[in-house]
Amino acid sequence: MHNLGVTPDHGDSGRADMKTMDTLRQQFIEFALRVGVLRFGEFTTKAGRKSPYFFNTGLFDTGAKLGALAGFYARTLLEARAAGRVRFDMLFGPAYKGITLASATAVALAGLGHDVPFAFNRKEAKDHGEGGSLVGAPLKGRVVIVDDVVTNGAAKREAIALLSNAGAEPAGVLIAFDRMERAGPDDALSARSAVQELETLHGLPVIAIANLDDLLAFANSSAPAAEQVRAYLPAMQSYRDHYGA
Q: Which of 19, 46, 123, 128 is catalytic?
């Protein structure tokens, strides 16, 4: 089995090559390109940075796209478990994007022979019906948080606290794409990325289907779909060199 949860050895170049890049990661990047979720040009991030690429999980907006995405989440999680990176009993999706992602991933896992419970939270607690802010299976055992990305880690920290307060054990965080960027303003960049901060502070693995180094490796590869990416390789490498952790 491929180890999907471990970042490849990037050597002096700061990039993985296609020998170390996992096949499933390559397939995911090709899929994201094909459906227009991964785009290139000039984009302004939430931090105000000018980025040469943009990964928008909100564009997984049809049943077919979401089903395929969930398959990548499920296979990545199972590979990470096989590699000993994570053990889990159930999934949790933080509101709002995480609700759909955790639900779809649970369906995909069941299709692969691993039927696990899942739950999610509401932003506002209900005072009627079943009440409360939690929906789905009772939170217990080892729980993996499923979401799209880690921006500043605040939402994931809230989810970790919620799970702990409910008596469950946060086991890890599963995301689609890791931008591998250091946080903070340009004149005071953090030494670590938001993902690294989360892993360090909480001792939890953050498992990404793919990351920026995988995208750079893909752009350097001979894959047919890499042609549309290669023109942006210098800009992406420059961005990685400046902001990368």
A: 128
Helix 63-82 to helix 23-34 angle (10° resolution) is 160
> Binning pLDDT at 50, 70 and 90, where does residue 183 land?
confident
Percent of the chain with pLDDT over 70: 88
> Which residue has tokens 């752009």?
219
CA dihedral 62, 64, 68, 70 (to 10 degrees): 60
Coil, strand or helix at 149: coil
Based on the residue annotation, tell me whether 126 is a catalytic residue of this protein. Answer: yes
| Alpha-carbon dihedral angle through residues 217, 223, 227, 229, given to the nearest 10 degrees | -30
Cα separation, 148 vs 179, whole angstroms: 11
Q: What is the pLDDT of residues 194-206, one digit of tens each?
A: 999 999 999 999 9
